[in-house]
Design goal:
Layout (H helix, E strand, L loop, with lengths): L10 E7 L5 H12 L4 E4 L9 H13 L6 H15 L3 E5 L5 H17 L6 E7 L2 H13 L7 H10 L10 E5 L4 H13 L2
Helix pairs in contact: 1-7, 3-4
């Protein structure tokens, strides 16, 4: 694979799957493998919503009249825009179950890349795992003080989740119960073919 810092264009990797599927482990290992200085990592569950940067962001959006429900997404999107302008690899780790919203987000990011006279190759890494395994992981994580969706939200994600492969996206299928190194190698191989 071409060294990320030598790339003449940004790259977007979207890691999607059910909560508890192993997305975050794969995202962190991939960031390390690609070179942390070359990567912008986006994850709504890992965002510091108490930071000065987020406070300034929400203040500005509130003044613009933007719905507070969109503040977190807009914060991540602004970081993605910065990554595009800097020709970085953007890893966005989120379930992404709604195809219509996903398509709009991709259109925005591709449009931003075009405005900056570059293209934006996109790879969707879909992390698959049995929903019962994912649910057990979430339950354990919450018992240990971690985050996780409510039972109703998890059920909705499970019911709504499907592959985006048939919708025009280059995808790589990963198993959330495989060794993380295997998943990283599969993503790197798919990036080589973009």
């Amino acid at each position: 694979m071409k060294k990320p810092q030598d790339s003449e264009r940004p790259t977007l990797i979207l890691i999607r799957g059910l909560p508890g599927s192993g997305k975050s482990y794969i995202a962190k290992a991939l960031q390390k493998a690609l070179g942390e200085d070359s990567v912008v990592m986006l994850d709504p569950d890992a965002t510091d919503y108490n930071s000065k940067a987020y406070a300034a962001h929400t203040k500005a959006l509130t003044e613009e009249g933007v719905d507070p429900k969109l503040h977190a997404y807009r914060f991540l999107r602004a970081q993605a825009h910065n990554g595009i302008a800097a020709h970085k690899i953007i890893i966005w780790n989120q379930p992404f179950t709604n195809l219509e919203i996903f398509n709009k987000m991709i259109a925005n990011l591709e449009g931003y890349a075009a405005e900056h006279h570059t293209s934006l190759p996109i790879l969707v890494a879909e992390v698959e795992v049995d929903h019962r395994v994912a649910k057990e992981r979430i339950t354990r994580r919450k018992q240990e003080g971690g985050h996780g969706p409510s039972d109703n939200t998890f059920t909705r994600f499970t019911n709504d989740y499907f592959s985006f492969r048939e919708h025009g996206y280059t995808t790589v299928a990963l198993r959330g119960d495989d060794d993380v190194a295997m998943s990283v190698a599969a993503v790197v191989q798919a990036l080589d073919q973009l």
